[in-house]
Amino acid sequence: MLPFHQAVKDDFSAVNQLIIEKLHSDVGLVENIGHYLVEAGGKRLRPLLVLLTANALGYKGKDHLSLAAIIEFIHTATLLHDDVVDMSNLRRGRPTANAQWGNAPSVLVGDFLYSRAFQMMVGIGNMDVMAILSDTTNIIAEGEVQQLVNAKDPKVNEENYFRVIDKKTAILFAAACEVAATHCGGTAAQRDALRLYGRHVGVAFQLVDDALDYTGDAATLGKNVGDDLAEGKPTLPLIYAMRTGTPAQAELIATAIRNGDASQLPAILDIVQATGGMTYTLDAAKAQVQSAIAQLQHLPDNLYTRAMKELAEFSLARSF
């Protein structure tokens, strides 16, 4: 458990228990895959943001626990579908669900998790929450399709890249904060600030994730290094290196992206480092974290708000 989890450790444990309860199904395969995913752990930053936001605003009810579980179910559903689309075989240091059970069960259990999340939303009965999360899941789907369109296209520019990560990743971080603020008594100004905080943290998280694909190691990351290149994903370190490198360097990277070929990974790593692509990406992430922290001035200064600052800083400093 990371330090900022400690602020809401009892709530966090309660959410984990609720997730297990809500995974119940009469179909054994649903529960098997669901429990496999839950037991894989992960940082659970998105549900954690729900808990921290609710507590920062002084909320005393229990609905924030359901909201946190809903956010985690939506996130897990996207992971199941992502791994099928990307043909990934390793996540969080273990074989992916599609590697274990096949693509069809992974897609269908992802659908189960989406629909369970919406069942739980109905149980909460807040139409504003329903509106935020229905819009969010739609935007995530758009982002996933756009990323698919961008795959193996070395002409993708920085603006297009940021548009995709905003839709695919940052929007759920933003929604986690916004639904908690909406349901747990936040003012309009606090709702806006928390949505922006979550969005900036989400962008920073994805930028660091994309950098780690070229600087981390599989044991620490829990996934294969170079996966993005093997999938032909034009991420920011590569986009910057192609823009600033020599024509020969740019063509080497472009060819690897077009072919989804990681065989030249060592040479590409050298180019990314030599052109400053990694520094550029991490500087962009740092700016996002600073923007996120600036939004916290709209919240009361308490244990939970300070934990949110720590969480934002972690998104930049993490190695996994």
UniProtKB/TrEMBL annotation:
UniProt keyword Metal-binding present: yes
GO biological processes: isoprenoid biosynthetic process
InterPro entries assigned to the protein according to its UniProt record, in alphabetical order: Isoprenoid_synthase_dom_sf, Polyprenyl_synt, Polyprenyl_synt_CS
Pfam family, one: polyprenyl_synt
Main enzyme class: transferase
Necessary cofactors: Mg(2+)
Keywords assigned: Magnesium, Metal-binding, Transferase
Any one GO molecular function term: all-trans-octaprenyl-diphosphate synthase activity
PANTHER family for this protein: ALL TRANS-POLYPRENYL-DIPHOSPHATE SYNTHASE PDSS1, GERANYLGERANYL PYROPHOSPHATE SYNTHASE
Function of the molecule: Supplies octaprenyl diphosphate, the precursor for the side chain of the isoprenoid quinones ubiquinone and menaquinone.
Protein name: Octaprenyl diphosphate synthase
Taxonomic lineage of the native organism: Bacteria, Pseudomonadati, Pseudomonadota, Gammaproteobacteria, Cellvibrionales
